[in-house]
Amino acid sequence: MLTFVAQRIVKGVVVLLAIIVLNFFLIRLAPGDPAVVMAGEAGASDPLFVAQLREKFSLDRPLPEQLFKYVKGVAQLDLGFSFRQQVPVAKLIADRLGATLLLTLTAFGISLALGVLFGTLAARFAGSWADSAITVAALIFYATPLFWVALMAILLFSVYLGWLPSFGYETVGANYTGLEHVLDVGAHLIMPAMTIGLFFMATYTRMTRASMLEVQRLDFVKTARAKGLRNSVIQRRHVLRNALLPVVTLAGVHSGTLIGGAVLTETVFAWPGIGRLMYEALLQRDYNLLLGVFVVCSAMVLIFNLITDLVYRLVDPRIEFAS
Amino acid sequence: MLKQIALGLMLSCCAVTMVNAQTPKLGGTINAVIQPEPPGLMLALVQNGPTQMVSGNIYEGLLRYDKKLNPLPGLAESWTVSPDSKVYTFKLKPGVTWHDGKPFTSADVLFSTEMLKQTHARARNNLSKVEKIEAPDDLTVVFTLKEPFGPFLGIFEVGSMPMIPKHIYEGTDYKTNPANNKPIGTGPFMFKEWQKGSFIRLVKNPNYHEKGKPYIDEIYWQVIPDAAARSVAYETHKVDVLPGGSVENFDVPRLSKLPNTCVTGDGWEFFSPLAWLWLNNRSGPTSNKLVRQAIMYAIDRNFAKDVIWNGLGKVATGPSASTIKFYTDDVKKYPFDPAKAKALLKEAGYKGEKIRLQPLPYGETWQRWGEAVKQNLIDVGFNIETIATDVAGSNERIGNWDYDIAFTYLYQYGDPALGVGRNYVSSAIAKGQQFNNVEGYSNPEVDKLFADGAVATPDSKRKEIYEKAQKILVEDVPVAWLLELQFPTITNCKIKNLITTAIGVNDGFRDAWIDQ
Fold first, then answer.
1. For A278, which residue in chain B has the nearest alpha carbon?
2. Integer Cα distance of B454 and B469 in angstroms
3. In this structure, what DSSP letter does residue A157 have?
4. Domain residue spans in chain B?
């Protein structure tokens, strides 16, 4: 297993390098550079001002030189300097990564747990009213745009009912500590996490239901029944365990897109995460920051993929680690 | 009758005393929206809108300006001008200290002007007429000009010329000075904390030079990236102040009707944002004056004001906004007249060549305006193609003259010599930059008028010159003027005295207090 992990890490580094080089050039294909954006915002510019900015950001250097410098930096775990915010990129990302991970992992956890639960229930009571209710709800959440769900949730829970805060990570200026702080962050977390989670929950519900119904028809389940096993044991040990494999595959793929999917949610709910950081960096052509976020996101996708492969093994011991 | 007048007088007296009796209360926190998040707070290095809004509390300028743009004392408590209008002597306020306790002196003023000339494009331009600056003593600064410069007393506001502490910046690399992340000024509030992506926190300066001020204890500037979420934050009382432009315009009427909500359009007199369409005077159909005039007749600007901007603002008559000096409306008028536009197009020989229209990527209001103008132009026979870009792309295209018609809005800075001339004089044609003469208009007569207007004395002579310039420009239509924009500030009514000068919220919360 160790050799497997080591091999995957080496492959990951190569992939990461390819991603960096590709992104480096892709970003520069967009019209306008950071100097143009900043000069535009200042409301006045003269040639000296723009030239100073370009020099300051090393944008006046040849592209290969800029690329070499950047890759060299990343190899030494230095993600460079944000042109715009005048802060090391690594610090900006580190400050925001926690918030994004809290949001996306909560959403991921909720959606996976509830999705498998509802999917199992729907399969167990296939054809009943409960099955119909779950399937219809899943279909609605699957088809509804995220931002609309978010805005409706804000209208209902913040504006009309006043139960939940509509934006931010915590109550600014309240200076809560201990349990109060945890509850405060939790209250801020519910709506954004549910907004992201609902879509994925719907997916897992549908996947689990279909997969279980399929497994239920297989011969080994019939054998288990013939042996006289209790139905709950059959459902749990024989059906669910086998039905989970496609769900794990799907979840593995999703884990990578969770961060990208957070851009919209983080913007609507003013959640201080890296999805928003990435979006703002893109609009402001803050090259180093944007590249930095890409690098971190790519690294996380690679890590999640590795974890998925390890989870396969746990769910289904028949799967061997290819060496 | 007499009795009634007497009663009225008495009532008005009482009303006045009642207002005075409302003495400011101490304490409290103000939550305000800041959008987008500023890239930094060091006002000498970064001058974008959000930076000015937050940093106006931290830094100060030598002068402030009332809503009629008359100078008020700031860090300078008095000033005199020599009879030949070339020597300006400022007396600084004694007893002013920086946030770290060091005294503020004339040496800081000298240093600030030197530093700003290197880092601040607008200040560099504003100071170009200055021959020398001297400090005969700690509290006196003397500016000697090469020639009289009409708008000179108008360049000392905090955003145009913030005072920077010499003892912290002298001899350092300005761009990497650690103080940039913990700005130190003389202002009523001190920088305390910045959680990137969430909020910026300022706290009261206990040693502020105006005794008793500021009244409030702290300000939280909350970063909320989504416009709808900003409206909700106000509705749910999480923020008390929505500075001009922080919510979409179509939300303004709804928010204004909420209980305990006060709305004011004041505080933009110095900037007087004026929206227009850049028209490419160099090439394509828009290089023909008749086509440009046709565009002016074709656009229903009253519709845009009433429907897209919800009745806010004013239809522009020419290159100057009505709120700045030497404005005149005695110019050629362009009412909405599609028939006349069609006739002009025919006369110009326009054959349906494709024209690229670039809306401003600043949110939904601007997108809708782009659609409305496109429709107006199509209705009179133009062949319009809309170009969609983001801010960086839009700036790049405009700066490189790669457009036919493009939306924009620019600040006027109170005086035609500061905020108007730069868009029309030939010397301001420079590829790669925005907000100069991007349209490529060149008229020696206009060049001369703006050159003379800047140095003429007295003001009556300047008025004559600028009125003539306005007449010529409106006839030539180098750009198509649309609206004098209004960005209302929406506040909870418990916040009093927030906007007192011509730069509004940007002048800091020094006079604001909360009626709790």
1. B197
2. 12
3. I
4. 23-58+187-267+487-515, 59-179, 274-485
What's the CATH fold of domain B59-179? Answer: Dipeptide-binding Protein; domain 1 (3.90.76)
Q: Do B226 and A277 touch (CB under 8 A)?
A: no
- Taking CA–CA distances from A53, the nearest residue in chain B reads B119
Q: What is the Cα–Cα distance from B254 to A120, expressed in whole angstroms?
A: 47
**pLDDT at position B96, please?**
96
If one compares B278 and A45, the residue with the highest pLDDT of the two is: B278
Secondary structure, 3-state, B183-245: CCCCCCEEEEEEECCCEEEEEECCCCCCCCCCCCCEEEEEECCCHHHHHHHHHCCCCCEECCC
Look at B435 and A45 and tell me if their CB atoms are within 8 Å. yes
Q: What is the band of A321 on the pLDDT scale with cuts at 50, 70, 90?
A: low
Average pLDDT, chain B: 91
pLDDT tens, position by position, B295-336: 999 999 999 999 999 888 999 999 999 999 999 999 999 999
Amino acid letter, residue A232? S
- Closest-CA residue of A relative to B233 is A166
Q: Do A269 and B238 touch (CB under 8 A)?
A: no
- Nearest CB neighbour to B397, from listed A31, A33, A41: A31
First CA to last CA distance, chain A? 9
Q: Which domains does chain A have, with CATH numbers?
A: 1-76 (no CATH), 96-315 (1.10.3720.10)
What pLDDT shows up at residue A59?
83
B212 vs chain A: nearest CA distance in angstroms? Answer: 24
CA distance to partner chain B, nearest, from residue A292 (Å): 16
Give residue A322's pLDDT: 55
Asked if B122 lies within 8 A of A44 by C-beta distance, the reply is yes
Count how many Cα atoms sit within 13 Å of the Cα of residue B7 in the half-sphere of its side chain. 4
Q: B125 — contact with chain A (CB < 8 Å)?
A: yes
Q: State pLDDT tens for residues B502-513.
A: 999 999 999 999
Statement: residue B7 has pLDDT above 70: no
Q: Please confirm whether the linkage preceding A88 is cis (ω < 30° from 0).
A: no
Asked if residues B390 and B361 have their Cβ atoms less than 8 Å apart, the reply is yes
Q: CA-to-CA distance for A282 and B390, rounded, in angstroms? A: 10
Instruction: Kindly list the residues from chain B whose CB atom is less than 8 angstroms away from the CB atom of residue A267.
Output: 225-226
CB contact under 8 A, B392 and A96: no
| Among the four given CATH numbers 3.10.105.10, 2.60.40.10, 3.40.50.1110, 3.20.20.140, the one describing domain B274-485 | 3.10.105.10
Residue numbers in B near A268 (CB within 8 A) = 226, 228-229
ipTM score for this prediction:
0.84
Could you read off the pLDDT of A119-145 as tens digits, one per residue? 999 998 888 999 999 999 999 988 988
Which candidate, B429, B486, B31, places its Cα nearest to that of B237?
A: B31
Facing B229 at nearest CB: one of A43, A166, A285:
A166
A80: left (phi over 0), alpha (psi -120 to 50) or beta: left
Per-residue pLDDT band for A269 (boundaries 50, 70, 90) equals very high
CATH-assigned architecture of domain B23-58+187-267+487-515: 3-Layer(aba) Sandwich (3.40)
Q: Name the token pair of B237.
A: 């009382």
Query: In this predicted structure, what is the pLDDT of residue B98?
Result: 97
- The alpha carbon of residue B361 is apart from the nearest alpha carbon of chain A, in Å, by 11
Q: Which among B195, B229, B394 has CB closest to A167?
A: B229
Burial per residue of B221-243, b for 16 or more beta-carbon CB atoms within 10 angstroms, e otherwise: bbbbbbbbbbbbbbbbebbbbbb
Please report residues of A whose CB lies closer than 8 A to that of B155.
none
Mean pLDDT of A28-54: 77
B window 362-421, beta carbon within 8 A of A: 389-397, 399, 410-411
Q: CB distance B47–A37 less than 8 Å?
A: no
Which residues on B lie below 8 Å from A32 (Cβ)?
390-396
